[in-house]
Structure prediction request, 64 residues.
Amino acid sequence: MDMDQGATKKPPAAETDDPQGQKSQIRQRAFELYQERGREDGHELDDWLLAEEEITSQRTRIAA
Prediction:
């Protein structure tokens, strides 16, 4: 058995190749941020960008 076999194994496709699932997670997190702020309008882009950063970094840590 090859010792490097586990080191080259890719993460499951569901974790890395699901742009629709990722977009859904970002949308959900952005809405949570909106609610946490007391549903104050005018921060949609800020919420989206923060949510995107959080979800992307979560997925990167999981894949690593």
About this structure: Confidence is low (pLDDT under 50) at residues 10-15. The chain has one domain: 17-63. The chain has three helices and no strands.
